[in-house]
Amino acid sequence: MNVKFLLFETYLETIKRSVGSNLFQITWGEVDGEKRDLTNKGQYSCAAHVSSILLWFSEYGLIKMRHVGVSGLVKDMEKCGWHKIDTPKEGCIIQWEGKLKNDEMNEHIGFYIGEDRAISNERDAGTPIEHHYTYEGKRKIEAMYWHHRLDE
Known about the structure:
The protein is an alpha+beta fold and 152 residues long. 20% of the residues lie in helices and 32% in strands. The strands form two sheets. Strands 3-8-4-5-6-7 form a six-stranded antiparallel beta sheet. The protein has a two-stranded antiparallel sheet with strand order 1-2. A hairpin with a 4-residue loop joins strand 6 and strand 7. The protein is globular, with a radius of gyration of 15 Å.
């Protein structure tokens, strides 16, 4: 029997099935010797969501470690071969502009799943949701990233 793992199909299915999951809500860390939830019950979980899914496919070199911040995640992705693309492509990663909320600048990142739809962590729900990839024009896309291994 000859079995071939289908990376792209499995990757995309994992992204789609993450919607509504509270799996990414809490990330424990130690800050100045004190144990804290770094993602505040899912309010800051977009990078944790994306990096966790990418780590499930780490044997393909998509990422090196889990992240709770967008800038660290993007740096790791770029080191692992992700490159910017101009047109959304099913499975690509989208980085949206930062938005000021509660006097804090919040960067945002998620996945494009095709047909003008994206999946990213929703701050108020604390879980990944499906939405229009431009947030109906309310959030500017800063960059879109693709990894060549997803073409195989």
